[in-house]
Amino acid sequence: MRAQGSWIAMALIPLMVHCGGGGGVEVDDVVEDVDMAAVQLSFEVEQEIHENQPFTLHVRAVAPGGEVVSSVEGAVTLSTSVGVLFPQELTMESGEASGELMLNREGNGLLNASVGDLSGAFPITVEVTDWVRDPVDSVLSGGLANDEHWNHGGIHSPSVVASEGVLDLYFSTREVKSEEGDFTGHVLGRARSLDGGVEWSLEPDAPIWTPEDAGVDGFGSLSVLVDDAGEHWLFHSAWPPEGLPGVRVARSPDGLDWESAPCLEVLSGFDAFWTQQGVMDPSVVDLGDGVFRMYFTVRRMEGTQEIRELGAVEGSCEAGWGEPQEILARGSQGSWDAGRVSAAHVWREQGLWRMLYVGAASDSGSAKSALGYASSEDGWTWVRAASNPVVQKEAGFWEVHGVGAATTALLSEGSRGLFYMGFPTDKRPRVIRAIPSSSPINSSD
């Protein structure tokens, strides 16, 4: 993640490969008549390649001396060993083809091109989404200490729902600052943005649901979604007065008037032994027809160290929850997320399941936490990004004491906005907005 105002030089990166013998070539003049057996394809990419972000590709048919062979024309068919490419065809005219492309996942591989009897390939590296803070300042924070405001304790566990250009951000908060992981007395709040999450207003400027009304000690981490029928669903962590954390569920017709929906509650762990210390931090994806997939954090103790890892389960009000599965263990020893992985945010986009999660090298809390990224073909088997962590605290910004749970939403221009917790000096979390460094290609798929 780059701070706002930094940039990547847009110099051409020559990535010349050939479909026969010989090395790379440089483009000079234009020729028409040439021995086609000696013609090869050359490639140029104008910028670093990031998943779900456009990059410009130039493909040329060139002679051994580097001249463009203008007689080569037609459809250039493209393919790749790295995810799915869009579009998969360019048009070559007078020996040259150019266009904006997009790849749906990170990784290393080859990009292949063919036009007529010519074919070639070149190696590519696709990086994860390059998030840029915009604006640099935090975008939503709790009330000032002397205000005695109901959200003075900070903005915890954001969950954003987008609808027709309006963003609704649900969060957990209370009047006084709470210690990390203590959600006692936390109420449910909502803020609304009409400009893609740059400016927010509390609507209403009061709690929309209280622990007393919900029958819980306080609202923990949240996941809010709207199903195809327009019904709002709230999944949230809950701690009983005594016992283990679990997940409770509520429904609302409008996102304001909530009523408990116990059909999908997980009051503690599942039957699996690895969940029996409790489950929390739900992130829920609506699969349609009343079926949900819930990602959650499980915790256990190894000696004096608390371990947090991720699991997932599918279910519906009619059938209940199925068999839970472990999906992401803490990282290997010495890695940035060796201490814990938790608080996943999962969504589906461009044919892949995608996840942001909170990781830390130890169980010491937010001071060392950062956001990691993983992707999956089916939502059960996940691969971490090699470049993790993708968002971490930086001096001079609001998250100087670490970052916490994240949420994303599609913005009106088609890009995906990221909203994550940042812990400033007073450790009352704020929400920070980040966007991709470039807008996506608008695919009809």
Instruction: Quickly name the level 1 CATH class of the largest domain.
Output: Mainly Beta
Helix-strand makeup class: mainly beta
Spans of 5+ residues with little confidence (pLDDT < 50)?
Answer: 2-25
β-strand amount: over 45%
- Average pLDDT works out at 88
CATH fold category name of the largest domain:
Tachylectin-2, Chain A
- How many DSSP helices? 1
Task: Specify the overall morphology.
Answer: elongated
- Distance from N terminus to C terminus (CA atoms, Å) equals 28 Å
**Helical coverage, percent range:** under 10%
Provide the gyration radius in Å. Answer: 25 Å
CATH superfamily of the largest domain: Glycosyl hydrolase domain, family 43
The tally of structural domains comes to 2
Question: What can you see in these coordinates?
Answer:
- With 445 residues, this protein is mainly beta.
- It has two domains: 13-127, Immunoglobulins (Immunoglobulin-like), CATH 2.60.40; 131-436, 5 Propeller (Tachylectin-2, Chain A), CATH 2.115.10.
- It is 1% helix and 46% strand.
- It has one helix at 211-214; strands at residues 13-14, 30-31, 40-45, 49-50, 55-62, 68-69, 74-80, 85-86, 89-92, 96-103, 107-115, 118-127, 131-133, 156-163, 166-173, 187-193, 201-202, 222-226, 232-238, 246-252, 259-260, 279-288, 291-302, 305-316, 320-321, 325-328, 340-349, 352-360, 370-376, 382-384, 391-392, 403-410, 416-422, 430-436.
- A five-stranded antiparallel β-sheet has the order 1-3-5-10-8, with no helix packed on it.
- Strand 22 (279-288) and strand 23 form a beta hairpin.
- 43% of the residues are buried.
- The model is unreliable at 2-25 (pLDDT under 50).
